[in-house]
Specification:
The chain is an alpha/beta fold. About 45% of the residues lie in helices and about 10% in strands.
Length: about 750
């Protein structure tokens, strides 16, 4: 009897092989068949890892060259009109990345994770038809290795719920057009084997479902479950509870339900419904989103609680979600302190955890198995060691938090902005960038060599300062108004700070896919947070010494640092955020005392941390806003505080953004259009705002005329006195040739618009 299960597995490879080959292909250095070879090797290696660990249910079609939502668009032939003249890999990657003539499809966050998906575009002109070739090829590929996989599909209700119609109407109205394609795909899958399992991912079910959406669940799964008699359907949701959908799904012919008991404890409330239905429960009890070693005894107690209602016969032990969200393996960490390393578990280690837990839970004779007994004892000891470690607890931090007296900055916005306008002397439609400039191979090499003690501190700093000099010279040359230093010293906007904060850990190879070939290496918070010394002052003041124009100090905000880190699970998140906020407030004070007049505190991940359930949002907003205000509380009235947010729909949180009390906010709007700006006008948003005038996630260079049109569209929504002009995000991932031309065009466009006003 199969008793354990993995929802999905990372795909970038243990050495980021997928990233490297994709970027080589895009740079025209290797042919596409090289990408296909690397991808095939990775799939087979990942299947072998799972088989060798003793996993019963291993996935196929969880691998993607860019994104599984994009793969689903291809599966359905949901191809936007501007791409329909393209074929094969050119079509696929152009949909994701755009080209010189085509704007890429919109990209946004996958629920409340740091993964991004490509937003499907739907049109009444679409002609949907099934394309199951990828699905079939990968299944047969695994079968040749003697591995019978379950097939992963994005469910139709999630696909539609996360799509946008170009006419602005309800995407769910397309269910009647899309569902027959799913039926055809399932029919083709049914021809592959005698019995075959299909995992249909419906994470949309963990959100608050409108009555209309709930009414679609039963007819959808009544149809899909009876498409092929030999196909066993498992409907999986994750990141929260799915109680409303579960109560409906138990009355359909699906074979099983996958539920998240790590982040959706409320799923316990629907066990009676599952038990009465006789469905199988795939119980997500091993955390697929965080990196801490599982507490076996705690998990076994949870499984006992579940089995009291459900019994053991229909219970399967699983990850809470796909392991896409954690790094590959802790064995790749050669320099981490052993004490800390023993607290952690990455994707490969979680495979072993699942197998050990399932054996401990299901095998009555395990008490006589020395290896299992030793595994349980070692796990218990590792968790005890972590809880009692002196590395975790810092009484000075706790005392500082206890003695806090000032929680927000002085003065109202209306008073501050008058002082700032006078002090800083900037005009309407001021130009700037979000912060980072391209990370060249030279500076990456210098950083790496310095960390490995292969070059001296003097040589390292010389390289960084030379880059800063060039960044400032370029910005002055094109006549940008407010400058940045380019951030050459920063490997990542969160990791850079994590490396300098006490209580933070970081990895050598803890890479996690963010989107496409883009990988991030999140730090992890294991203890109480403090700032031993200034983190950015030396670099920012050096840059300011090289120009008479204003240089922005660049910091990452406490909520983003929290949301883009692996956070300790032994302390409430809002308390951890408060500790980070105090550290950032100290940095703000040091920067302004060093003569820095504008300080940007990025909260790029503010929205993605939102709870998926409405009843939990107010509490999150309360502490997230409070901690942003706390981190800016040391700023004087004349110090202008900026923040940046990306990939956000602001309509529902505009008042929350206003409550953060930043003087200027920059936001992503280039891919999503200017519709979201209308809400700023509608609610009477008073702070200044810099909507992105071009998309930096695409290699295409926008023309002067294109940016002029975009600025004029912005002016239809907001007055010039309120607008700043900037790209929609940092420029770290772009090439210098694209960046230079794009920014030159942006500045020229602003001058043309100003001359016409």
């Amino acid at each position: 009897m199969s008793k354990n299960y993995v929802t999905g597995f990372p795909r970038i490879g243990e050495q980021r092989e997928l990233k490297k080959v994709l970027e080589s292909f895009w740079a025209k250095k290797v042919p596409f068949n090289e990408v296909e070879t690397i991808a095939k090797n990775l799939r087979q290696r990942h299947w072998e890892y799972q088989r060798n660990a003793g996993i019963d249910y291993i996935s196929s079609n969880d691998f993607s060259l860019y994104d599984t939502m994009l793969d689903t668009s291809i599966m359905l032939n949901a191809i936007p009109k501007r791409f329909r003249d393209l074929t094969d890999e050119t079509l696929y990657f152009t949909m994701a990345r755009g080209d010189k003539t085509r704007i890429a499809m919109e990209m946004t966050k996958w629920f409340n994770t740091n993964y991004h998906y490509i937003v499907p575009e739907l049109s009444l002109e679409d002609h949907y038809k099934a394309n199951a070739s990828k699905i079939i090829n990968e299944y047969m590929e695994a079968k040749k290795l003697g591995i019978k996989t379950k097939i992963n599909l994005i469910g139709p209700l999630t696909f539609l719920g996360l799509s946008k119609r170009i006419d602005g109407k309800d995407p769910y109205e397309f269910l009647g057009r899309v569902l027959p394609i799913y039926e055809e795909v399932l029919s083709r899958i049914g021809t592959l084997d005698d019995i075959i399992t299909v995992q249909i991912d419906e994470p949309i079910f963990v959100k608050d479902l409108e009555p209309k959406v709930k009414s679609l669940i039963k007819p959808t799964y009544d149809r899909l479950s009876t498409t092929a008699s030999n196909v066993k359907l498992i409907v999986t949701s994750y990141f929260e509870h799915a109680n409303e959908a579960t109560k409906i799904l138990v009355n359909t012919p699906i074979w099983g339900l996958g539920l998240d008991f790590v982040y959706g404890e409320e799923n316990l409330e629907v066990l009676d419904f599952i038990a009465k239905s006789g469905k199988h429960l795939i119980a997500g009890v091993v955390d697929g989103r965080n990196i801490w070693k599982n507490d076996f005894q705690k998990t076994l107690n949870l499984l006992d609680k579940i089995s009291q209602t459900l019994g053991k016969e229909n219970l399967i032990i699983s990850t809470s979600c796909s392991l896409l969200h954690v790094p590959f393996s802790i064995t790749l960490e050669k320099h981490m302190k052993e004490e800390i390393k023993n607290w952690l578990s990455f994707a490969v280690e979680k495979l072993d955890e699942i197998t050990i837990i399932s054996r401990l839970f299901f095998e009555e004779h395990h008490k006589h198995d020395k290896n299992l007994h030793d595994a349980l004892r070692e796990n218990t000891q590792a968790n005890l060691n972590r809880r009692s470690s002196k590395r975790i607890h810092d009484d000075l931090v706790l005392q500082k938090i206890k003695n806090l007296q000032k929680f927000q900055r002085d003065g109202q916005f209306e008073e501050r902005i008058k002082i700032q306008r006078k002090t800083l002397g900037y005009s309407d439609l001021t130009t700037t960038t979000i912060g980072s400039f391209p990370q060249t191979g030279e500076i990456r090499t210098a950083r790496s060599q310095y960390k490995k003690n292969l070059i001296s501190k003097k040589d390292y700093e010389s390289c960084m300062k030379h880059y800063i000099d060039e960044c400032i010279a370029f910005q002055e040359e094109i006549d940008l108004d407010v400058l940045v230093h380019g951030e050459p010293e920063r490997n990542d906007m969160v990791e850079y700070f994590g490396e300098q904060l006490k209580g933070y850990g970081f990895t050598q190879n803890g890479w996690v896919q963010s989107y496409g070939s883009r990988c991030v290496k999140p730090p992890f918070i294991y203890g109480d947070i403090s700032r031993p010394k200034p983190m950015t002052v030396e670099w920012i003041t050096y840059a300011q010494s090289k120009t008479n124009k204003i240089i922005k100090g660049m910091l990452t905000g406490p909520v983003t640092i929290l949301n883009w880190s692996f956070v300790r699970d032994d302390k409430p998140r809002h308390i951890v955020a408060q500790e980070i906020a105090v550290a950032i407030s100290e940095e703000v004070d040091d920067l302004q005392n060093a003569g820095i007049k504008i300080i940007q505190i990025d909260e790029a991940a503010f929205k993605e941390g939102y709870p998926l359930r409405t009843d939990k949002i107010k509490e999150y907003e309360k502490w997230a806003v409070a901690n942003f205000k706390l981190c800016a509380s040391t700023a004087r009235k004349e110090t202008q505080i900026h923040t940046h947010m990306c990939y956000s729909e602001f309509n529902d949180i505009i008042k929350t953004i206003e409550a953060m009390d930043a003087d200027v906010i920059t936001i992503e709007t280039a891919r999503s259009g200017n519709e979201l700006l209308k809400i700023f006008k509608k609610v009477g948003y008073k702070q200044e705002i810099g909507p992105g005038v071009y998309d930096i996630h695409s290699p295409r260079v926008p023309s002067v005329e294109e940016i002029v049109k975009q600025i004029n569209r912005l002016l239809e929504v907001l007055p010039k006195e309120q607008l700043w002009i900037n790209p929609d995000c940092g420029l770290k991932t772009r090439g210098w040739s694209e960046v230079k031309q794009s920014l030159e065009n942006m500045v020229k466009a602003v001058k043309l618009v100003k001359s016409s006003l």
